Amino acid sequence: MTRAALLGLCGAIALGLHLSAAYASALPAAVDGATSVLSSQSLVVQGSAVTDTMLKTPGAGELFVTLTDLQFPTSFGSLQFALNDASSTLVGTRDAGTMTIDLTEPMTVYADVFAATQGGYGLYNLTATFESSSSAVPLPSSAVSLASACLMLLLFWLRADSMVPQPSRDARRRL
Question: Rounded CA gap, 65 and 112, in Å?
């Protein structure tokens, strides 16, 4: 096959296979390690207390905040929390439980816990986890990949052909 024919073949394949870009979708989140734990703490309260926990989210995604009364040694009379950022209240005061917030960008959120015992001590747990949102990852077009590979092959073949010593005219005449 001549160089011109090989070059023409590569060009025809590249033009004939003009395909749109492909996209790879993200795999579903795995249970182990797909979720980042931003905070997990258990605190003892005597009487009443207000605690503030800073939560830094790394990007867009869902923030899950869970406040649990561990009922040790007794239940709380009142256990509530709220979420704020630096300038406003994201979610007003809520009773213990789980709350989910969709975030569109990285930000710092503060979880404020308001706890009051029924006299004596109480124990609660605050857990905050973050799941990143995923989007499709663009892949290069198949035609571009094929054309690049053909061009590299052609250049390698031309370079290798030019490095082989050519027989002289006298040697060709003897053949």
Answer: 11
